[in-house]
Amino acid sequence: RFLLQSAALTVAGASFPASWAAGKIKPGERAALIVVDVQNCFIPGGTLPVAKGDEVVPVINRIATAFENVVVTQDWHTQGHASFASAHAGKKPFETTKLSYGQQVLWPDHCVQGTDDAALHKDLKVPKAQVILRKGFHQHVDSYSAFEEADRKTSTGLAGYLKQRGIKTVFVTGLATDFCVAWTALDAKRLGFETYVVEDATRAIDLNGSLDAAWKNMKAKGVKRIQSSDIDVA
Ligand code: VGL
Ligand code: ZN
Questions:
Q1: 41, 111, 142, 180: the active-site residue
Q2: How far apart are CA 121 and CA 118, in angstroms?
Q3: So what's the ipTM on this one?
Q4: Beta strands at 102-105 and 129-135: parallel, antiparallel or unpaired
Q5: Nearest alpha-carbon partner for 150 in 105, 197, 193
Q6: Which residues contact residue 138 at a Cβ distance below 8 angstroms, ignoring those fewer than 6 apart?
């Protein structure tokens, strides 16, 4: 849980970094913050609004200052994308259907490439963001996870990108807790990263108990649930 700066720990002399004494997590240079889908589409006023989605912005802005590495994702759908209810005759948003890779929740049209709706929230301030990863752009395949598309075959390359840069730990934030955040965190853990979800830096859609189910699943798989106050933000 604690990443010690080697110079700061003297066992005999009992000198510890302040963050260690305070029990806070200090993200080192081998940690990355992943900011999932903080886009207008998921903010009240957008096409698939997440209740209080805007409230994650100041929390993410604050903790982002503690990270050397930041990855931002964007849900980036084609028009008439397979995850849109409007693409399936007789289907309404929030119903499900069976696609080639399994069950798919059908959503209102949202986050269409290049629209204002798909833009990042204007108040999001992550100056150290090094990559913006777009997902969900294959017409027939959704991608909640930033690592792997819903067919469970097509990689986004994010794991390789992070591993080649020596990243061992990821902190997942953004929207929505029970869909893109959870799927991203579960894949991160499965792919070998120590994985935290910063709960107060997320908001949920909560469809038919999906939020409880997501937390149970994440706990079972070893994803750690923390609050932004658990992070040492200098
Ligand atoms: C998301 C539903 C559809 C998300 C994306 O970002 O959680 N949810 N597309
Ligand atoms: Zn989507």
A1: 180
A2: 9
A3: 0.98
A4: unpaired
A5: 105
A6: 78, 149, 154
Q: Which helix or strand (DSSP H or E) is residue 185 part of? A: helix 182-190
| Tens digits of residue pLDDT in 119-131 | 999 999 999 999 9
Distance separating alpha carbons of residues 67 and 105, to the nearest angstrom: 34
Among residues 116, 114, 108, the alpha carbon closest in space to that of 87 is found at 108
135 classed as catalytic: yes
Pocket test for ligand 1, best of 34, 35, 37 (most atoms within 8 A of CB): 37
Q: What's the pLDDT at 142? A: 98
**β-pairing verdict for 96-99 and 224-226:** unpaired
Q: How far is CA 185 from CA 140, 166, 201, in A?
A: 23, 18, 14
Q: Is the CB of 76 under 6 A from ligand 1?
A: no
Place of tokens 């913050």: 33
CA distance 170 to 234: 19
What pTM does this model have?
0.91
Which residue, by CA, sits nearest to atom 4 of ligand 1? 180
CA distance linking residue 39 with residue 120, whole number of Å: 4
Q: Whose CA is nearest to atom 6 of ligand 1?
A: 180
> Is 173 within 8 Å of 167 (Cβ atoms)?
no
User: How many Å lie between the centroid of ligand 2 and the Cα of residue 12?
Assistant: 53
| pLDDT tens, position by position, 67-104 | 999 999 999 999 999 999 999 999 999 999 999 999 99
The ligand that comes nearest to the alpha carbon of residue 136 is 2
For residue 179 and ligand 1, the question of a CB distance below 6 A is answered with yes
Residue 21, phi then psi, degrees to nearest 5: -60, -40
